[in-house]
């Protein structure tokens, strides 16, 4: 249930996420060492267009990547087929996109 | 005949498309004995209705494959001693194919997918023209040769969990054949092949589980062939878009 | 029990039996030559392309492709190899058309045969050939040929009836033509009758009535037994080719009898008897490198002297050539032996002569037509092309060439045939009754009887023959045949019932076994594969005759017919004057 | 179920990649949910973050980092197999990816504790 397009999308989003995840982990390590608080996190991120772009692109990528991944898993283990499978993929990716967007906005907007 | 009088305890799957169960038989152990010998012995001496399939008995035709102790194998060339578990054996029909009866499966889906993957020659010449001169050492030819000795036994097909979960997935053998043809200088089907392996059941569904390569009795490497197809389709994906 | 009236019936235009080289090529060619809309059906005892012996071809495919070799030379080798018994027109067409067929295999079907470094086809010489002629794909040539043909057939709109066993050729009421073929759909156990305007039979003979044999398990002489019952003349039925080195691993394993490749002897392998002596030089100055029939007889003689290995054969030993070397050069064989528990590279492996190929078959003309309108026969089922011996590499050439010829001819003949013919319902019912015979008897173990038959044929109608032996053989076969009729099969579940098919296999084997022995009695000389201890001479080539067996009512009559030297007479050659006898060193 | 035909390294690598992907995909919404609280109820995020001091949570964090790392490295292994010239050492690469994931997550764990 994975044509070349979805395959490419999954791989490309993975490639996009790769540096972003590394960056995120770096920040986390740094943050954890400093002892973490809401205020500290927010003070760093809020109002920064760069962080918005950083986490925003991660959210876009991961919502596609994970939705495709789940699509495959659901198809192979639960036997769900098209068109239900397409709807599922869409719903999952929109849901992740929505939740992710909310989170990103929460931490980057003032 | 030098028989040692030990006995094998053989569980054999009995049933049809819909249902079945294991049945236990006791078979005299012999010095040189293959799984196929054991199965035939049961049919010829204990239960006349046991169904299974074989033809060449030397690993060339690929019609005798079964699940032996949970693993797909060619039975005519699997020595009992190699797989025996104590004195126990379990023999079942190949996984991932519909069962016709007992140990015989319907291999049509496997071959339908072989053709669906464009696993057939696309001629560039006729019988009235001379045979093409082809350098046997060229990289393309080496690539084509790597998978050419496939006996379409379906062992890889039944080892693969992606096949189990995804009814449309063309499977390792068909995709390997497509890759072989893709590298055949005489074949004009490159585009058709790329198209065929890029669809909903194509090479992109493979998760590189590698069971195909582990179990292929001819030591072929379908996993690699599939990875190469992914590479080729990726290339053509970007070429088309720029 | 099913009655003749509940036979499933359907019609087609062209019906093909078997998916070896003959069957597949017939299907492809028929599709190319028949008018648009022609229905083509291919029916086979196993799965398409996965049964029969074409897939098992190791050494390769004979074809004269230049480089000094010519069709004429190939033809002369074929006639000499067949000891002047071949039908010369058939042999000629075989050699001539092989050239086209091999181009077709490469260019249209997509086979890839081994190449020389310069990119041209690699050719080697099998025994009995005077040129490097054999095209091959490693030592697994058959897999390449049949897999590629299978793909072509599977991808075409051809009706496919797999696991359909032909059990009777059903003529029209007046007996002048073939109406159709009766099958058992093996998966369900039901009878199916298919009417067709043209039928090609390519069920591939198969001398599996011998204790040791090489062909695939599905081949049991069904085609020739059907042809015999239908009253068709069969020729050269005494000619059974033995391969000298079949694996010997005991009667309980199907590995026994399978071929250990010819090249082992060619490369310098030793044949040893129980006292580790290289005995072949006692029989021929070429030792292990003598031709198949000579080596087979050498081994057989040694076996009769009881100089035998553990399981009653002799040993082949390669280790003196260096185990590593052997492992590299014969990797396929070494691996196969290892899978069976034997060490070919470093140890000794037991071997025995094994029945390999059947030269005899239905009398056909060079267009594959038979005495019965609507029936065509090609491949190992057809007699005539090889005479008394088949050259290594001529088998697959024969089946692919003549399968294609049959397809072409049927495509043309079809245009002259208006409709399917009606069968003689009495014959149809009789065939159903025949197949159901065991259902009314008490079940017993059939395999034991098969072993008895194989033992009888091996001992009395085998590698070396005498009148007394063959007469004894005929009596033994007849007893076995009678006993078979008392053995039953439980009819409660006929779906994929192999035991029923074992019974039917035995029926065909018994019928043809006795014809082999009877034809053997009629040939009171020794030619090629047929060796008479009581008539060791070959007779003059000018006086060559071939045997023709025919069933009339309940007896089989065998007669002699003079060979027509339609192209070349004994002592002559069609090679131009001054051509060298041989272009290659004599080797295997 | 680990059936016999699955008992080999590359199949385990596949299973690990799938399970880690699945776990990450399930974890992600929760992660997003908590972060989004920053907008509406900053205190609850703080409460949550104090929780991260507890050892159980540390362990869970280690797990999370491991999952991410093993999926990450496994993902690169797959893309390398698919797009770079073929190598016969796929088993080694899979082992290296898993070992690397342990290393990274272990380091993370140790630094944090
Ligand atoms: C081990 C081995 C090695 C060989 N090596 C060589 C070689 O190197 N070179 C060479 O030239 N020749 C070789 N031969 C010989 C060669 O294989 C045969 O001559 C040739 O393949 C015969 O082709 P065919 O189409 O007539 O029959 P086959 O290929 O045997 O096909 C017969 C078909 O008919 C089917 N059939 C049988 N009975 C029935 C029935 N009742 N109803 C329906 N279908 C039926 C079978 O299932 C099969 O599909 C070898 C043979 C063997 C056994
Ligand atoms: C953190 C967020 C991520 C989530 C939630 C996630 C989730 C998933 C899921 C659910 C799958 C499907 C697994 C399967 O098919 O078996 C998957 C597959 C995949 N992931 Fe991720 N992933 C994430 C990050 C990454 C990263 C950073 C990479 C790359 C470096 C990556 C590379 C891949 C690849 C290559 C596949 C395809 C595997 C296959 O086809 O077998 N993923 N991912
Ligand atoms: S690739 Fe190997 S296992 Fe798969 S069908 Fe071919 S020979 Fe059998
Ligand atoms: S086992 Fe299946 S998932 Fe791919 S690598 Fe082989 S086809
Ligand atoms: S019987 Fe042909 S491969 Fe086993």
Let me know the number of strands of chain B: 7
Question: Which pair of chains forms the biggest interface, and how many residues does each contribute?
Answer: B-C, 75 and 72 residues
The CATH homologous superfamily of chain A is named Fumarate reductase/succinate dehydrogenase, transmembrane subunit
Radius of gyration of chain A (CA) equals: 16 Å
* Shape designation of chain A: elongated
What can be said about the biggest beta sheet of chain B? 5 strands, mixed
Largest sheet of chain A: none
Question: SSE order of chain A, as H and E?
Answer: HHHH
Which CATH class of the largest domain in chain B? Mainly Alpha
Estimated helix fraction of chain A? over 70%
Share of residues in strands of chain A: under 5%
CATH architectural type of the largest domain in chain B: Orthogonal Bundle
Strand order of the largest sheet of chain B: 2-1-5-3-4
The top-level CATH class of chain A is Mainly Alpha
Question: Number of DSSP helices of chain A?
Answer: 4
β-strand amount of chain B: 5-15%
Structural class of chain A: mainly alpha
Q: Might you state the CATH topology name of chain A?
A: 3 helical TM bundles of succinate and fumarate reductases
What is the CATH topology of the largest domain in chain B?
Fumarate Reductase Iron-sulfur Protein, Chain B, domain 2
Each distinct ligand: flavin-adenine dinucleotide, protoporphyrin IX containing FE, iron/sulfur cluster, FE3-S4 cluster, FE2/S2 (inorganic) cluster
Describe the structure.
The complex is a heterotetramer of chains A (110), B (242), C (588) and D (113). In chain A, 85% of the residues lie in helices and 0% in strands. Chain A is an all-alpha fold. In chain A, helix 3 packs antiparallel against helix 4 (84-108). In chain B, a hairpin with a 2-residue loop joins strand 3 (65-68) and strand 4. With 242 residues, chain B is α+β, with helices and mostly antiparallel strands. Chain B has helices spanning 35-46, 80-83, 108-116, 139-146, 155-159, 161-165, 172-182, 190-196, 211-215, 222-241, and strands at 7-15, 20-28, 65-68, 71-74, 88-92, 99-101, 104-105. Chain B contains ten helices and seven strands. In chain B, helix 7 packs across helix 10. In chain B, the strands form two sheets. Chain B has a five-stranded mixed sheet with strand order 2-1-5-3-4. In chain B, strands 6-7 form a two-stranded antiparallel ribbon. The longest helix of chain B is centred in the C-terminal third of the chain and has 20 residues, at 222-241. In chain C, helix 5 (222-229) packs across helix 14 (498-522) and helix 13 runs antiparallel to helix 14 (498-522). Chain C starts with 7 loop residues before the first strand and ends in a 26-residue tail after the last strand. Chains B and C meet through helix 1 and helix 3 of B and helix 3, helix 4 and helix 14 of C. Bound molecules: flavin-adenine dinucleotide, protoporphyrin IX containing FE, iron/sulfur cluster (SF4), FE3-S4 cluster and FE2/S2 (inorganic) cluster. Chain B: Residues 8-95 form the 2Fe-2S ferredoxin-type domain. Chain B: Keywords: 4Fe-4S, Iron, Iron-sulfur, Metal-binding, Oxidoreductase. Chain B: Its EC number is 1.3.5.1. Chain B: Its cofactor is [4Fe-4S] cluster; [3Fe-4S] cluster; [2Fe-2S] cluster.
